[in-house]
């Protein structure tokens, strides 16, 4: 079942951890849901990209120190 | 053909750029208006870029005790552009630019594409003109016009001149239509000599940039409009 406007806005607010502008409630719920999905997808994409970059960066660190360095810089 | 460069359309493009999606996927948000779209975009950027800020600040602290030359080598060879962009956003601009001065323009352009757009102004303001110009050429070659528009908006005047001189004519037009502040567009056009203004006018006829030139002509002040429209 398609979400109501309130549900769609609430889902975005949960993801952003902040209340979006009130004018978002005038927008079609399907558009808001698509935005929420796009933000979640980009967040996942960035996490994967950072994780891959960290692994690449750690290759130049001597193996015994990698865990410590990773703990230091990985969010 | 008309060019929709209204504040709403520019905000939608910026939101789509941040999310790496096509602008058509966010066009349904247009009724929110430019002001609320900007607030929403800032909330989205906070979600995407502020998570784990303390970790990046620790990484900056580590880079602070490493000599600049070594930090630059490690940045380019080990961190890569994605991590470097995150660390850069949390570094003091002077420190970021010390290291950035030793990186290749190509790698700096990679960082510029990945960096949190909210920090571009601080970084650009302290960067030497020739560096920004070299990075600008790289970004223009990659058609990263929105990123360049943010740079052009934020640059101090002496750096702006060097950057504008370095950009190809068609790239300059495609960047200027994405700059939101009409005063800044006027300042950029004022920096162009008459030969370059003529070259821009010629683009309208030969490169299909008529609508873009028309938009620029509409928003600049009377003096620059007269130069852009002179026969």
Radius of gyration of chain B: 19 Å
| Nearest-integer average pLDDT of chain A | 86
What's the total helix number of chain A? 3
* Strand elements of chain A, count: 0
Helix percentage of chain B: over 70%
Euclidean distance between termini CA atoms of chain A? 36 Å
Helix residue percentage of chain A: over 70%
Question: What class, by secondary structure content of chain B?
Answer: mainly alpha
The helix-and-strand class of chain A reads mainly alpha
Low-pLDDT residue spans of chain A: none
| Major β-sheet profile of chain B | none
Overall pLDDT score of chain B: 87
List the helices and strands and how they pair.
The complex is a heterodimer of chains A (75) and B (231).
Chain A: H1 5-16, H2 29-58, H3 63-73
Helix pairs in contact in A: 1-2
Chain B: H1 7-19, H2 34-49, H3 53-64, H4 68-90, H5 93-100, H6 105-114, H7 120-125, H8 129-141, H9 145-154, H10 157-166, H11 169-176, H12 182-191, H13 194-206, H14 210-219, H15 222-229
Helix pairs in contact in B: 1-2, 3-4, 4-5, 4-6, 6-8, 8-10, 9-11, 13-14, 14-15
Architecture overview:
- The complex is a heterodimer of chains A (75) and B (231).
- Chain A is mostly helical.
- In chain A, 71% of the residues lie in helices and 0% in strands.
- Chain A is built from 3 helices and no strands.
- Chain A starts with a helix and ends with a helix.
- The mean pLDDT of chain A is 86.
- The mean pLDDT of chain B is 87.
- Chain B has 15 helices and no strands.
- In chain B, helix 14 runs antiparallel to helix 15.
- Chain B has 231 residues and is mainly alpha-helical.
- Classes of the chains: A mainly alpha (75), B mainly alpha (231).
- The A-B interface holds A 15-18, 20-21, 23-24, 26-28, 30-31, 34-35, 38-39, 41-43, 45-46, 49-50, 52-54, 56-57, 59-60, 72-75 and B 18-21, 25-26, 28-29, 31-33, 36, 39-40, 43-44, 46-48, 51-52, 54-56, 58-59, 62, 74, 77-80, 82-83, 86.
């Amino acid at each position: 079942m398609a979400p109501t406007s309130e549900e769609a806005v609430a889902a975005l607010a949960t993801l952003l951890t902040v209340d979006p502008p009130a004018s978002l409630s005038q927008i079609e719920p399907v558009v808001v849901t698509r935005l929420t999905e796009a933000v979640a997808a980009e967040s996942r994409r960035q996490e994967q990209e950072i994780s891959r970059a960290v692994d690449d960066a750690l290759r130049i660190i001597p193996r015994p120190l990698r865990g410590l360095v990773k703990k230091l810089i990985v969010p | 053909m008309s060019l929709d460069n209204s504040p709403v359309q520019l905000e939608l493009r910026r939101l789509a750029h941040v999310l790496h999606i096509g602008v058509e996927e966010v066009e349904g948000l247009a009724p929110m208006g430019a002001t609320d779209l900007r607030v929403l975009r800032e909330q989205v950027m906070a979600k995407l870029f502020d998570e784990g800020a303390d970790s990046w600040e620790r990484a900056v602290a580590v880079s602070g005790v490493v000599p600049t030359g070594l930090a630059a080598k490690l940045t380019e060879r080990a961190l890569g552009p994605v991590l470097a962009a995150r660390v850069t956003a949390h570094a003091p601009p002077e420190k970021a630019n010390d290291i950035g001065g030793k990186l290749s323009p190509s790698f700096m352009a990679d960082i510029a594409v990945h960096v949190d757009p909210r920090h571009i102004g601080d970084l650009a303001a302290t960067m030497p003109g020739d560096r920004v110009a070299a990075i600008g050429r790289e970004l223009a070659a990659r058609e990263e016009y929105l990123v360049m528009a943010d740079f052009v908006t934020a640059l101090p005047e002496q750096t702006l001149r060097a950057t504008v001189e370095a950009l190809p004519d068609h790239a300059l037009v495609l960047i200027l239509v994405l700059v939101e502040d009409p005063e800044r567009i006027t300042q950029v056009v004022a920096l162009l000599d008459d030969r370059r203004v003529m070259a821009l006018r010629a683009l309208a006829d030969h490169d299909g940039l008529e609508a873009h030139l028309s938009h620029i002509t509409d928003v600049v002040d009377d003096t620059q409009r007269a130069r852009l429209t002179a026969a």
